[in-house]
Amino acid sequence: MKKINIGLIGYGFMGRTHSNAFRQAPVFFKHGHQPVLKAVCGRNAEQAQAFAQNWGYESVETDWRKLIARSDIDLIDIATPNNLHFEMAIEAAKAGKMVMCEKPLAMNAAEAEQMVSAVEKAKVPNMVWYNYRRVPAVTLAKQLIDQGKLGKIFHYRAKFLQDWTINADVPQGGTGTWRLDASVSGSGVTGDLLAHCIDTAMWLNGGIDTVTAATETFVKERKHAVTGKMQEVKIDDASAVLARFTNGSLATFESTRYARGHKALYTFEINGENASIFWDLHDLHRLQYFDYRDASVTRGWRSIHVSDGDQPYMKNWWVPGLQIGYEHTFTHQFADFVAGLDEGKNAAPDFRDGLKTDYVTDAILRSAQSGRWENAKGRA
Ligand code: NAI
Ligand code: SOE
Q: Quick one: which ligand is closest to 263's CA?
């Protein structure tokens, strides 16, 4: 069993989900590499120490450059706000480390292109944490599409709705609200929420050629959490998108943080000539499936409870009928990354896949400015 010494940067929300995955993956999925929680890095030594103790990291760093320079670290995992992904990933690749990075890969596609070049030049394994692909019901959707069950696909429809920034008193910037500060996040809901929908969509239904979009910033000024000054809000609060896939299908995508009553409603529906599927993050263990080829008297939407051993990932968990949840998507993704190491290939989505999503989100933001259809394929 080869050891992989992990250096995690960032001990916030994603630092926790990733750490949980590093601990669970080798227990539930047997592969040829054993993760070692070697070091966690954060700027506050006391908090980093408390995190290390809770999750079982052997050591702590407060300077990410020192962590990357350490000869006992094999893999750098980036779980920091978006504006830090670029520098950290490039530096890690140059140091010959494997790199796993949170989504969106970068602030924009221009940065992401350089990150792809860096990991490919250094020939280091790499991956972006678009975790929703690893919900067993979503992976089952992929299998059904690849088996041709839907036939020709006409429509793809996805949305990711939240409501936590409606109050104009929510500040921008600082811990917890960095997503509202464009200099840290790169964009608003397009890069934060819609990027998930785009990643899943391109995985399930192939490349997106062109997009046209409208975005809106409902609250124009917010106090900055660090400076205390009222400042212009430069993120998109909501985005509504029309898209054309290479396979000829038409899509609508929507993301917002102003949909009162929705905390994290990610849904998608795909309509093909023979069948349709629908999935909802709030009911994540179910896949809704309609097949026109069923006998007409009993034809209708089936609600498939994805928990059986012959369904994706489920044989590694409990017994049929008992479902799993959100945190398992990260465990699956890390287990697949390790399986990729065994086979000498990257687990998808790798940095090049992450770049393709950044091309689409950049095109959405460009279109919202230009009012035109924009090329979403970049140089991919
Ligand atoms: P967070 O704010 O909870 O945590 C960020 C961490 O980065 C904090 O521990 C902070 O102290 C640390 N950090 C900031 N600057 C640093 C520096 N210079 N050196 C070392 N550490 C530093 O943020 P969260 O929610 O964990 O988001 C992190 C990343 O994960 C973002 O890119 C976000 O888009 C992505 N994300 C992905 C999710 C998914 O579904 N895959 C879910 C939530 C976030
Ligand atoms: C924002 O609230 C957020 O945490 C995103 O950053 C994640 O990517 C998404 O999975 C859930 O919502």
A: 2
Query: In the structure encoding, which two tokens stand for residue 258, read together?
Result: 């102003």
Query: Ligand 2: which of 178, 193, 198, 361 to mutate, judged by most atoms within 8 Å of the beta carbon?
Result: 193
Residue 318 placed within a domain? yes
Residue spans of beta strands (DSSP E) within 184-274:
208-216, 221-223, 230-232, 238-245, 250-256, 265-272
CA-closest residue to ligand 1 atom 1: 12
Ligand 2 binding pocket includes 192 (Cβ within 6 Å): yes
Mean pLDDT of 77-91: 98
Say if 28 falls within a structural domain. Answer: yes
Q: Do 161 and 284 share a structural domain?
A: yes
> Average of pLDDT values for 260-266?
98
> pLDDT band for position 42 (50/70/90)?
very high
Ligand at shortest distance from the CA of 186: 1
Domain total in the chain: 2
Residue 13 near ligand 1, beta carbon < 6 Å: yes
CATH number assigned to the domain comprising residue 109: 3.40.50.720
Ligand that comes closest to the CA of residue 42: 1
Same domain, yes or no: 125 and 147: no
Domain that holds residue 313: 133-374
Say whether both 127 and 179 belong to one domain.
Answer: no
* Structure tokens that stand for 321 in this block: 């009928």
Specify if 295 maps to a domain.
yes
Question: Is the separation of the CB atoms in 249 and 151 below 8 Å?
Answer: no
Closest Cα to atom 40 of ligand 1: 131
The C-alpha atoms of residue 195 and residue 330 are separated, in whole angstroms, by 17
